[in-house]
Amino acid sequence: MAGRPIAPRLGRALLLAVFSALFVLYVAGPVAWLVSSSLQTEAQITAVPPNWLPPELNFGNFDAILNAAERQVTYETRRQGDPATGGFLPSGAANLLPSLWNSLTVGLWVAALNLLLSITAAYAIAVIDFRGRRATLYTVLATRVVPDIALIVPLFLVIRNLGLINTLGALVVTYLAITVPFTIFILISYFEGIPRDLYRAARIDGCGHWRALRHVYLPLSLPALVASLTFAFLTSWNEFVFALVLTQNVAAQTLPIVISGFVMDFTTSFSFVNAAGVIAIIPPVVMAVLFQRYIVSGLTAGAVKG
Amino acid sequence: MSGALERRPGPRRRPALGYDERNAAILVFPVVAVLLVVAAYPILYSFWVSLHDIVLTRPLRRPFVGFDNYLRIFDDERFWLAVSRTTVYTVVTVAVTTLLAVLVALLLNEAFPGQRILSALLLVPWATPSVVNGLMWKWIYDPTYGLLNALLVQLGLLERYRAWLGDPDLTLLLIANAAVWKQMPLAALLLIVTMKAIPDDLYRAAKVDGANVFQRFIHVTLPALRPGLMLVLVYETMISIRHFDLFLIMTQGGPGDASFTLSWLIYVETFRSLRFGTGAAMSYVLAMATFLLSWALIRWLGKRI
Question: How many C-beta atoms lie closer than 10 Å to residue B272's C-beta?
Fold first, then answer.
């Protein structure tokens, strides 16, 4: 590079700077605007022209929706508006905190069970040479070819017949059906990359399959395990359609359902909707940035192979 | 794969279920059991439902009607309207997502200070829940206080505020824009992986032959990007054709019937009209259409790109 004339290098730097700026504006701009709006009062977000940045840091919106249960939001009280911020509280605001716990509970169960179920199956398919292993793999993957929308009706009927409508268990089981095939796929491609000699050595030393899995395969596949946990949690945290159909009230509704209720109630002030959106966006975004390396390698595992 | 050696017929016959087979069965059983209950059984059950006239408002009457539900779909005006809306939405979403993803992949494939931060930022839209994505863009498009109006007016590009999502000509495109924002990162990641696999020698050879940046992109990068592009096109098509979340949150099929897509039709038919039989039949039609379309895309693109 050192010997090249300076003009093209400057041109390249300028081009990269311009495109980087456009990229940041496009990717982060909308989220930044959401966060900025969530920190402004109803009066401030409805100003024309708008306040690009909040005039002062004001967590009133968050306080109002998170503590709505104590304020007894009724039709009369919400018509007077929230005194702190001057907006109309969403009528379902009291459900926000319970739904946050529901989302968390379901997400953690799905992440844990997804991994437990997938590890053993992926090990068997990737390592053990048994009759029907290809058939098993294709069957597992085929369940994901059917679009979710085609599963909603029958799943609703199955869950209803089992008496599980409006329970967290129904969501956990449903999300496992979504996440397990993908996790198995990732883990298989990872397990197959572990040298076969390690497996043979373990078997010669007298290890059975369970010990080979525990002492050889699991310690070596930590990145794939982290990626799988993250995917399962994020899928469960973000999922909307199944939760919409399978849950009815605060006992099992997850965060996306309660928030969509905020959005569709057109009397609600946007300041509270924005604050709820920020609450829902924080955990997945933090996880994504924290586990970036694992996520990228996991997401692209299939692409490299084929 | 290493089984070839062990499979050679030896003097002793292998037992019907050896150690390996027994263990494999135990290890695989839990997954198969779960998937049978929550995936395989519902898929078959759905087919059974689609052959019956099941209306939830008349729960005790569920006559078998054969393929009548399917035939009725094709006589339904709403179905053909939904097909055209879905087509517009899918074509726009897939085209713009792919185009943007190629640009982003080209940018992030370069080595420059700050590249790692940008790569981390790329995951933000991907991780954003679709409900939040919907409310965020709805707020940006807001007719009285939205960012889009404010920006355009301040830049002098627009005279007065407009109700963006209320304009039937724009609704589908604006929803598509929100969808592109969320779907582009995964597409870009897949393309970056494919780009990383292109040997540097190819670029050096092209440079020696006097190819400029654009010629190098057309003749080296693009052909090598084929498998990645195919994956992106097929995956994005499958996602877009059955997309639902944004339509419920942003427009509920409206204004009028401007965003009345297939998945919205299925939702309305099933959970508002409570006609489960025709709803299930529509789901099956959509599933088969998606399946056939991706199969056709793979064959067509395999030859073309």
Answer: 9
Distance of residue A2 Cα from the nearest chain B Cα, in angstroms: 16
A43 Cβ under 8 Å from any chain B Cβ: no
Partner A contacted by B136 (CB < 8 A): yes
Cα separation of A189 and A305, whole Å?
8
Domain layout of chain B by residue ranges: 68-304
Peptide bond into B30 cis (omega under 30): no
**Average per-residue pLDDT for chain B:** 86
Q: How many Å lie between the alpha carbon of B281 and the closest alpha carbon of chain A?
A: 9
Closest chain B CA to residue A258? B131
Pairs of residues, one from chain A and one from chain B, whose beta carbons lie less than 8 Å apart: 273
**Domains parsed from chain A with CATH numbers:** 93-305 (1.10.3720.10)
pLDDT per residue as tens digits for the range B216-272: 888 888 888 888 888 899 889 988 998 999 999 999 887 888 999 999 999 999 888
Domain B68-304 has CATH 1.10.3720.10: yes
Alpha-carbon gap, residue B242 to B151, rounded angstroms:
32
Distance between CA atoms of B37 and B53, rounded to whole angstroms? Answer: 24
- The pLDDT of residue A298: 80
